Amino acid sequence: MSADGRIYLSPPWTDAAERRAVEAAFESKYIAPCGPMVDEFERRLGKLSGLSAAAVSSGTAALDLLMDEFNVGPGTFVFAPSLTFIATVGPAVRRGATPVFIDADPATGTISIPLLEEALARRREASPSAPLVVVAADLYGQCSDYDALEDVCSRHIATLVVDAAEAVGATYKGRPAGAAGVASVYSFNGNKIITTSGGGAVLSRDPEIAARARWRAQQSRENVVWYEHREVGHNYRMSNLLAALGIAQLEKLPEIIRRKRATFERWKQFLDGCATPFPCSQDVESTRWLSVFLFESETARDAMSARLAAVNAESRPAWKPLHLQPVFAGAEMHGGEVCEDFFRRGLCLPCGAGLGESDWSRLSLL
Prior knowledge:
Elements: H1 16-27, H2 36-49, E1 52-56, H3 59-69, E2 77-81, H4 90-94, E3 98-102, H5 113-126, E4 132-137, H6 146-155, E5 159-163, E6 171-172, E7 175-176, E8 183-187, E9 200-204, H7 207-216, H8 240-270, E10 275-277, E11 284-285, E12 291-295, H9 298-310, E13 316-317, E14 332-334, H10 337-345, E15 346-349, H11 357-363
Helix pairs in contact: 1-8, 2-8, 3-7, 5-6
């Protein structure tokens, strides 16, 4: 429960360990971006993911750096699931790329591979030399179908980037979240599975991609004493203070995931007969970052949301599909019925790792 008595959807779970970590970083005098905590946080992210990592200021910044890496701009077609947060495509669209949205797989909620293949084949036939980029978003704590994505992107000569912002700590057939494609990103925003307050990371099997992201995140400054620039970069580097928070959170990741899964199971039992869990692939070990359930109708979903509000508890509809967003009116869309149905009936329920028995006592009044 928060200080104001509200039960929030997915607040950070912190205690004295995080405070001690940040105080240690403060005492070290490394306050500005860069420092030993950033280096250590990147090392631990590498151990978690099996990839090279560059810690940056947000997941969106991480995606923006990868759009730099792959020269995304006018003439580039970027394929992405419609059922995701706008940041999945935002950096590409701001650079002038053309978004192409794909419906969800009814069995998993992640991007539909058959519809993606259809869209890639159609675009490759119409524009044989056009650069094609697929940004596949992991969803609510579960990974996308990495094997199928890598196969279809390989056959249609498309660059695969994985937006694993919502799936840190999850696995796909034993592979860590983000361990697919050419590169991927994590997010450590305030409501994510672990947080650095604000933060993210670029990850890749290719250490040079992570190194270039790290370099571009520091204004693309050349390694000389004076300020020398051969390319325009960004101010996207993570601060040493926030990296210290991230290190403490990473140490708690197994316990956070255990608590998230237990909360999901508790909601599943509580809602038995009136809602079903959001689908998840059998190939995935989900973290259950958010506890998402599908109700019989939009009316039933809204009724549950109102009941939660009555006990001062937050809830939120499932992602509104991007092809329904006013900013993307007229964008190319393949399918749409599945993700629209998920939006109409889906509800994200309170599931913070710090949810306590006093909170459940209040929620049991629903």
